[in-house]
Write a structure and sequence with these properties.
about 35% helix, two-stranded antiparallel ribbon, mainly alpha, about 190 residues, 4 strands
Length: about 190
C-alpha cells in the first residue's frame, strides 16, 4: 500500500509502498532516514504542547538560576554553598497532573482574598473598575471646606517626569534599523 511520507531532512513529500518497510533513504535528497533501533529500545513521544513547555522551561530556568545565585552569594559572603542553600528554589511541582511547574502561591494575602471572595466580596480590580477609577481621578472632590479639587490627576505621570529629570539617562535602546544593520545581527528565523 503506497502512502505519502515526508522526509525529515529536505521536508519534501514522496510516495512509498510501506508494505516493504520503512525506506532506508529519501528518494529525493538521498539522505539516510531509516530509524535503526533495537526492538527493546523504550521510545516515548513528546506530548507537551508549546504553551506548557515554555511555561515549564521558565520555571526550570528560574530553579537552575537559583543554584547559580546561591554559589555567587557564597563567594561574595566568603562562606560555603551549604550556608546559602536557602536561596535555592527546590520545590517545583513535578506532579504530572499539574498544569505548571511553579507552586501555587499561598500566603496571608491570597488567604485574605479567598476569604473575601467566599463572603461574596470582590478581591482586586476588574478591567471595568480601572476605567472608573481613572475617570474619578479627574472628577473634582469636595475637600471639606467647600473647595472642589481633583484627586491627584496624572500623579504617576508627574512622578515619572520628576524622576527622569533628576536621574542621569543610562542609555537608549537601539532603533530597529540599527539592530538589523549590525553585522553581528542574526535573524531568529
Amino acid at each position: 500500500m503506497a502512502v505519502v511520507l515526508k522526509c525529515p531532512v529536505c521536508r519534501e513529500k514522496f510516495k512509498y509502498d510501506v508494505s516493504q518497510g520503512w525506506p532506508d533513504e529519501c528518494p529525493i535528497c538521498k539522505t539516510d532516514i531509516n530509524n535503526r533501533r533495537d526492538d527493546d529500545d523504550v521510545v516515548m513521544p513528546n506530548i507537551l504542547s508549546f504553551k506548557t513547555k515554555n511555561n515549564d522551561k521558565v520555571a526550570r530556568d528560574i530553579m537552575d538560576g537559583s543554584e547559580k545565585r546561591a554559589e555567587l552569594a557564597a563567594q561574595l559572603a566568603g562562606t560555603s554553598v551549604e550556608d546559602m542553600s536557602s536561596l535555592k528554589i527546590t520545590n517545583l511541582n513535578d506532579d504530572k497532573g499539574s498544569l505548571y511547574s511553579a507552586k501555587e502561591v499561598v500566603n496571608p494575602v491570597t488567604r485574605q482574598m479567598d476569604a473575601i471572595r467566599a463572603q461574596g466580596g470582590q478581591a482586586g480590580f476588574g478591567h471595568t473598575q480601572g476605567a472608573e477609577f481613572a475617570a474619578a481621578a479627574h472628577a473634582p472632590v469636595d475637600m471639606g471646606n467647600g473647595v472642589l479639587k481633583p484627586v491627584e490627576p496624572y500623579a504617576g505621570a508627574r512622578a515619572m517626569r520628576r524622576l527622569q529629570t533628576a536621574l542621569n539617562p543610562i542609555g537608549q535602546a537601539p532603533l530597529p534599523r540599527e539592530i538589523t544593520d549590525n553585522p553581528n545581527y542574526r535573524s531568529r528565523v
